Amino acid sequence: MRVNNFDNKNGGIFLPNLFQLGYATKDMEGAKKALEAHFGARVWQYSPVLEAAPGVFMADAKTWVGDIMIQVQEVTRKPGASQEPLFWDSPAPEPGQLLRLHHVAHMIYEDAEWQHILDEAERSRFEIVFQTQFKDILKVVYLDTRAILGHYLEYILCLPAGYAFFNEAREEIVRQTAIMRQ
Questions:
Q1: What is d(CA 98, CA 92) in angstroms, rounded to the nearest whole number?
Q2: pTM of the prediction?
Q3: How many CB atoms lie within 10 A of CB 178?
């Protein structure tokens, strides 16, 4: 799904193909309940818990609200775990705040678009804080734009198997939501 067009005549990299809002929380269950009660979230998908550093874990839940995927991330540390800050730690919710915007994600569909993002990140001197590839599904890069925007920008290059992955995930959430409304 193309939420908006990548054809940005100004050459910038903000908001092409807006896809996802990513939030940090310190209370995953409370965050999910609030999104369900107030914003229409219904069905959740979970990624495997990631060990981001020794003894530091990130849980992840995703849902669709309209045309936007909402991702909620919670970082936990075991006693004695590394206290080294990770990019998943910031921006974190303030005391009394359930969720805090961590990143805005954009879906990229072509190698030329991906290269444009990397070139613009270098030109703008935005640090790449995380970059990886998940099999033949997708490539991901996070840029540190906190000093300007207060959050990260994430870009996802959808590879051939990724089209089916995202379409099936969305279709299943739509199907389960329809069943819940009956």
A1: 10
A2: 0.84
A3: 11
Report d(CA 150, CA 152) in Å as an integer.
7
Cβ count near 120 (within 10 Å): 16
**What is the residue whose two structure tokens read 């290269």?**
115
The tokens of 19 are what? 């896809």
Q: Are 169 and 69 in contact (CB under 8 A)?
A: no
Distance between CA 77 and CA 51 in Å, rounded?
Answer: 10
**Given the DSSP bridges, would you call strands 56-65 and 68-77 parallel, antiparallel or unpaired?**
antiparallel
Q: What is the DSSP string of 58-85?
A: EEEEEEEETTEEEEEEEEEE-TT-----
pLDDT tens string, the chain, 182 residues long: the values are 444 455 555 666 666 688 899 999 999 999 999 999 999 998 898 888 989 889 999 999 999 888 889 999 999 999 999 888 888 888 888 999 999 999 999 988 889 889 989 999 999 999 999 999 988 889 999 999 999 999 999 999 988 888 777 766 666 655 665 565 55
Q: How many other CB atoms are found less than 10 A from the CB of residue 97?
A: 11
Rounded to 5 degrees, what are φ and ψ at 58? -120, 120
Q: Which residues contact 135 (CB under 8 A, 6 or more apart)?
A: 161
Specify the DSSP class assigned to residue 107. Answer: E
